[in-house]
Amino acid sequence: MRFKKLTALCLTAAMVASLVGCGGKGTSSTDTDTSDSGTTADVAEVADTGADTEEGEEAQPEVAPGKKGTIEFWTVFTGADGTSMQAMIDAYNATDPDYTVNHRAMEANDLYLKMPLAIQSGEDVPDVCINHVERVPLFEEQGFLVDYTDYLDGSAVSKDNYNPKAWSMTELDGGHYGIPLDVHSYVLYVNMDLYEKYGNGVLDDGVLTWDEVRSVADACVADEIIPIGMAWLRVKFLASYAQLGGTLSTDGTTPDFNNETAVKVLENWVDLSNSGYCQKEGDDSWQLFLAGKVMFCPEGIWMYNNVKEAGLNAKMFDYPVFDAGTKGNWTSSHQFVLPKNDSRDDEKTMAVLDFINFMGNNSLEWAKAGQSPAHVSIKDVAEFQDMPQAFVADENEELKIYSYKYYGYAVEALDKVLGEVLFGRMTPQEALDQAVQETKDQIEMSE
Amino acid sequence: MTGMAAGRKRKLTPYLFLAPHLLLFLIFFLIPMFYGIYASFTKWDLFGSPQWVGLENYLTIFTNKESTFYRQFWNGLKNTIIFVIICVPFQVLLPLIIAILLDKRPKGRNIFQGIFYMPTLFSITSVTLTWLFIFNRSLGLFNHMFGTDINWYGEQPWAWITIVVTTVWWGLGGNLIIYVAALAGIDRSIIEAASLDGASGLKKFWYITVPSIKFPLTYTIVVSIVAQFNIYGQPLILTGGGPSESTFVLLMYIRNLAFGTGKSVAGMASAMSTCLGVIIGVVSVVQLIMMRRQED
Predict the structure, then answer these.
(1) pLDDT at position A405, please?
(2) What is the spatial distance between Cα A297 and Cα A279, in angstroms, rounded to a whole number?
(3) pLDDT band at residue A186 using 50, 70 and 90 as cut-offs
(4) Radius of gyration, CA atoms only, chain B
(5) What average pLDDT does range A286-315 have in this prediction?
(6) Residue A99 CB-half CA count within 13 A
(7) Mutate which of A232, A441, A444 to disrupt the B interface (most B C-beta within 10 Å)?
(8) Chain B closest CA to A231's CA: distance in Å?
């Protein structure tokens, strides 16, 4: 009797639990990690990437091991960039190395869950991974990554061969924890046809100030052209804020970006929005830009293929500035990191560095995917110099890379409030206070 | 002896049939569920070992008005409940009306039924993306066709309307086929008799149709309510939780806390989802009890 009751209870619980579970299933496919290179805040993009993941994973057959085995390489390249990455890896494997490289691409969010889990369990630990540079400080602090310093001496990988800014961002606690593959910046796209008509030569000096945007905006608005598109607000905030010398946290731990500098950035937006100089709320500025209805539209360099496909006459410039002297583009970087794994011997680690070096020296393919490779050799390639994002490769201080340990919390908190500020439902101070409070609470909870 | 053995065997057989499901249920539901409840009493980043904090997470959610988590939980719960309240009536009434119309056996009945059922087969992502494009402000079908300039995702009540329309359209077919089947099961002679006695259409519906399909009706209401408490994909894709976090539903907060961009706050997320689970559980049990009463 008792057993019967117990079974009945179990079944009832099963029914309730499966009901509870219903709605949750299948929703994970809509994960939004906007920190991935291939995605913007535009959800359509995110969904695209999701679809690509499956293809990406299926399309990668196991590679026959080299003389000594394989290097397991995990990346976040699930979109079109995954194809370029695979082509580069195939080229490396074709050189008949001791260790062939086996590529596994996965959604960025998945990688950031799976990598630590693998390291902790010690099973199926990848030999080398791609991480976004913002992720590295926290993983380093959690003890998941191996210091490159000891291996660099005996290898061809050298600091001098890389974009200095991208290299220095992974100098942590006296060690070196990442080798940059690329830098990818958030820049300004200009519709050159519209610029001819309305631009009044404001870009003659190669840089656009916010005042210049205002000076040409009314003429655009009169003809129903949107002067400037304002989407993916978190990086717009971070770019301007960094130009003005702002940091997310002064002491590296406690967030304090609810200050006057940050307010200044947001007040500029409110003014643009109130003047009717950006798109109306609910409009997708990038789609409108592609349709030729927006003159200035900031976006990531990796979105250039969209522009090409749309057949738009557009060029890339540095992100708009307050003062022509201080340029600054929000930038991230894909970095090769070495997950901690006791069973990987030094010989194999050196083989990994050899692979990384090869990738650096043969990065034209990566540039074709819209990225700006971090290895200096790319600057000698004539084909790269003709690419619109080439100017990013020469930049250093202009590249604003955030390395705040709790970057993830901060940007998610900012995501919730920045749109409210732009469209006048929150004051800049209120919004920043809420975002800082939320970041603080999350930090406290995670410690 | 043999009789007893046979008896025992007979008793055992049903459980053997149940065993595969029970095993899967144990591994994929019950154990994770209890682990989730355990996690809600801890501070945990998903990787390290959970650190026991007792009721702290719950106290934060329920009492600490200064905390972000308090604000997120109550705002998320409020929005979820608002959604359930406005969505479920449409989810029940609209398919019911269509089912009644289909029950009149119009020409092309099967085609219509097929069309209405089709959206149910698509994934939430593709359905929501379709509506995302329809409601796009400048390039979307709706504003274009009707010459309106409605900011669908950025202003209330439009944001809720888009979410509800999408959800109702997506889920219409599921309830519809249940109602169609139930209506087909009603004995026509009762309705004929009522007609002969001069009952009006509305009276026939209220006194004959509704009582006859009482059970499927209650069942669909329960299932719809539970399903809508789990809303996540539609606001995530359509509105991103805006404007002013007014469509930011509880599951979105939970997901962000546990699997967001930063280090995971899984303990707090578990506490919130345990609360949601309890609420859904209570609602379902109450409705199941009501259903049983109706049967008696």
Answers:
(1) 86
(2) 10
(3) very high
(4) 24
(5) 91
(6) 22
(7) A441
(8) 13
Q: Which of A14, A27, A291 sits opposite B124 (nearest CB)?
A: A27
Residue with tokens 């061969």: A161
Q: Do B47 and A281 touch (CB under 8 A)?
A: no
Query: CA B14 to CA A296: how far, in whole Å?
Result: 69
Query: Which token pair is A30?
Result: 């809509």
Q: Do A22 and B267 count as a contact with CB atoms less than 8 A apart?
A: no
CA distance A33 to B117: 33
Give the model's pLDDT for residue A146.
Answer: 95
The residue of chain A nearest to residue B124, with distances taken between CA atoms, is A27
ipTM: 0.75
pLDDT band at B2 (very low <50, low <70, confident <90, very high): low
DSSP A380: G
pLDDT bin (cut points 50, 70, 90) of residue B4 is: low
Cα atoms in the Cβ-side hemisphere of radius 13 Å centred on A400: 24
Cα-flanking dihedrals φ and ψ of residue B238, to 5°?
-75, -50
H or E stretch at B93: helix B68-103
Interface test with B, best of A20, A40, A402 (most B CBs within 10 A): A20
What is the SS3 assignment for A36?
Answer: coil
Distance CA B258, CA B265 (A): 5
Q: What is the mean pLDDT of residues A11-21?
A: 47
Residue of A14, A109, A284 lying closest to B259 (CB–CB): A109
* Gap between the Cα atoms of A340 and A329, Å rounded: 33
Say which of B151, B232, B259 has its CB closest to residue A282: B151
Q: What is the pLDDT of residue A21?
A: 41
Structure letter (DSSP) for residue B27? I
pLDDT tops 50 at residue A400:
yes
Q: Decide if pLDDT at A157 tops 60.
A: yes
Angstrom distance (rounded) from CA A13 to CA A22: 14
Residue A19 has pLDDT above 60, yes or no: no
End-to-end CA distance of chain B: 40
Burial, A104: exposed, middle or buried (Cβ in 10 Å; 0-12, 13-18, 19+)? middle
Report pLDDT for A61. 54
Cβ neighbours, 10 Å, residue A156? 13
Q: What is the pLDDT of residue B212?
A: 86
- B95-108 residue pLDDT tens: 999 998 998 888 88
- How many other C-beta atoms are found inside a 10 Å radius of the C-beta of residue B259? 18
Q: How many CB atoms lie within 10 A of CB A358?
A: 18
Alpha helical stretches, state H, A317-375: 346-361, 364-368
What's the whole-number mean pLDDT along residues B253-267?
Answer: 85
Q: Find, among A136, A138, A134, A118, the residue nearest to A126 by Cα.
A: A118
Pick from B139, B240, B263: CB nearest A138 = B263
The Cα A181–Cα A166 span in angstroms is: 9
